[in-house]
TrEMBL record:
Keyword ATP-binding: yes
Protein name: ABC transporter ATP-binding protein
PROSITE patterns on file: ABC_TRANSPORTER_2
Annotated family: Belongs to the ABC transporter superfamily.
Domain ABC transporter: 1-225
Matches recorded under InterPro entries: AAA+_ATPase, ABC_transporter-like_ATP-bd, ABC_transpr_CbiO/EcfA_su, ECF_ABC_transporter_ATP-bd, P-loop_NTPase
Highest classification ranks of the organism: Bacteria, Pseudomonadati, Pseudomonadota, Alphaproteobacteria, Rhodobacterales
Matches recorded under Gene3D superfamilies: P-loop containing nucleotide triphosphate hydrolases
One Gene Ontology term of the molecular function aspect: ATP binding
A UniProt-annotated Pfam family: ABC_tran
SMART domains referenced in this protein's UniProt entry, alphabetically: AAA (SM00382)
Keywords, comma-separated and alphabetical: ATP-binding, Nucleotide-binding, Transport
Length: 232
C-alpha cells in the first residue's frame, strides 16, 4: 500500500497510509471502526482507493479485476454475503469460467477441490441444505480453486461453534497461500509471523505477535475497565 487514502460515507478511513505485507501469516487487529474491514476490502480489490495504490503480487487489484481474481481471494465473516449460486458446483465453477476456463475444465477443477476436502459428493448439493460451517467451507473452496497467492480472512470464525472453528482453523493452517487475517480473536493469530494493530486508520504497532498482542490486550483491558463509555 503506497500513500493510500480512502474515505467512506464521508468518513476518512485512511490518509496517506503506507504498509508492506510480505510475511506468510499476518494478523490485523484493532477496535471496531479502526479500518480493519475496509483494509480487507481494499486488499481484495473490492473497493478502490481515493488516492495511492494497492498492489498484490504486482497486480493493481482495484483496476485489473481479472488478474486480481487469481491473485487474491477473500473469505467473509458471513458466507451468505459471498455465496451467489444455488449449488456447490456452480459456486465453485463461477470464478473459473469468469477467468476463461471452459465448463468442462471448470467442473474438473471443482471436483478436484471437493476431493481434496473429502467432499466428493457435494458437487450437485444445494447450498441451502448446508450448515453455517459447511457454507464457510464452500466459500473457502471457492477461493482456493482460483489458486490465489493471497487470501484475506475477515473474521472467518465469528458465530461458529468450537468444533467448526477447530476444523476450519486446521484447513487454514495447512494452506500454501499467504494469509491476511482480520480478527478480534487474538488466540487465532498468536502463532502468526506478524501482527499489525490498526487504530483509527493508522498503524499503532507492527511486529511479532508476542510483542504486539500483550500491549494491545493491556490497553483493551484498561479501556474496558473505565466507567466512561463515551469512546465506545
Amino acid at each position: 500500500m503506497r500513500d493510500l487514502s480512502y474515505a467512506r460515507e464521508g468518513h476518512q478511513v485512511f490518509a496517506g497510509l503506507n504498509l508492506d505485507l510480505s510475511d506468510h501469516r499476518v494478523g490485523i487487529i484493532g477496535r471496531n471502526g479502526s479500518g480493519k474491514t475496509q483494509m480487507a476490502r481494499l486488499i481484495a480489490g473490492l473497493a478502490a482507493p481515493d488516492a495511492g495504490t494497492i498492489t498484490v503480487g504486482g497486480v493493481e487489484v482495484a483496476t485489473d479485476r481479472k488478474a486480481a481474481l487469481s491473485t487474491v481471494g477473500i473469505l467473509f465473516q458471513n458466507p451468505d454475503h459471498q455465496i451467489i449460486f444455488p449449488t456447490v458446483g456452480e459456486e465453485l465453477g463461477f470464478g473459473l469460467t469468469s477467468q476463461g476456463l471452459d465448463k468442462a475444465a471448470a467442473r474438473q477443477r471443482a471436483l478436484d477441490i471437493l476431493a481434496r476436502f473429502n467432499r466428493p459428493d457435494w458437487y450437485d448439493r444445494p447450498i441451502h441444505g448446508l450448515s453455517q460451517g459447511q457454507r464457510h467451507l464452500v466459500c473457502l473452496m471457492a477461493v482456493l480453486v482460483m489458486a490465489p497467492k493471497l487470501i484475506v480472512l475477515d473474521e472467518p470464525f465469528a458465530g461458529l461453534d468450537l468444533a467448526t472453528t477447530v476444523r476450519l482453523s486446521r484447513y487454514l493452517d495447512a494452506l500454501d497461500p499467504g494469509l491476511v487475517h482480520i480478527t478480534h480473536d487474538l488466540d487465532s493469530i498468536r502463532g502468526y509471523d506478524r501482527v499489525v494493530w490498526l487504530d483509527q486508520g493508522t498503524i499503532r504497532m507492527d511486529g511479532r505477535p508476542d510483542a504486539v498482542l500483550p500491549v494491545y490486550e493491556a490497553e483493551m483491558r484498561d479501556r474496558g475497565g473505565r466507567d466512561d463509555f463515551a469512546d465506545l
